[in-house]
Amino acid sequence: AQTQLENPGFENWEPIAIGPVPEPVNWNSLRTALPESLAKVSPAVWDSSSDAHSGKYSLYLYNVSIFGIVATGTITNERIFADLDPNKGYVFTEVNNPEFNMPLPHRPDSIIGWFKCKPTPGDFGTIKVILHTDSTSAPASDSSNWVALAYHEFPGDQVNTWTRFSVPFNYYTSGTPDYIMVIITSGNGVNALDGSEAWFDDLGLIYNDGTDINEITANDFKVYVSHKTLTVFIDDNHKSNVRLQVLDLTGRPVYSSGILTGTQRQFHLNVPEGIYIVVANMGQKVLTRKVMIQ
Predict the structure, then answer these.
(1) If I label 262, which of 17, 24, 99, 208 is the partner at 20 to 30 A Cα–Cα?
(2) Domain 13-206 in CATH 3.30.70.260
(3) Domain boundaries, the chain
(4) DSSP class of residue 195?
């Protein structure tokens, strides 16, 4: 059987050293973050809820204003590094501590789950799932060891009934990951607003157990840049559908479009100068090119 997330329905909870609010087993919060000095004074921004999609419990996340900043409701299966400047906080892998990593030597197609939300107007929750080798962080200054990313922004409007979501993985390489990092929030990261709430339950990884993948060779993927105009051509006569994405070095998509193989396309990118990764994705058929835009 293919690997699934640990405690994906948030049924099991355990006490932690700081504060009275337990954590879901195999998941981690601000109270188990580093450094411990900030973990001790961090607010509780999570809890269990008896309003569950199935079973007895779901995960409840909420945003709280403290020290003049908004602490975003966040839970992860890896570890949080906290900072009074939210822009300096991140989630990271502790490869030598099984409490703060989850091995996943597989290539799932998508992640699914169920949610409800009550965001403050202008805010929204997110889920970010990174398949990676070795240790990584999110945000990351270098995402070169990311194998795939699934990212989803939940509605900015209130959703009062349990609603299913499904987010595909966008694969950057044809390699096999070592770990899976999952980050779930009730607000928009460092731009989160006080008072937003979200509930999550019954997460799952979906696999495609079909035949082996025939990769179009890297030589068939041609990318040219001139004055922020990207020209893309995949040398293949089958006119196959391709999802094209341009990512910055943190893995954040800055442009996406559909193209057909065998057809040359041009795109103008209104992005800052720098290095970007162009990804052509056909299911799990993946081609990548690193380009300099200036």
Answers:
(1) 208
(2) no
(3) 13-206, 218-293
(4) T
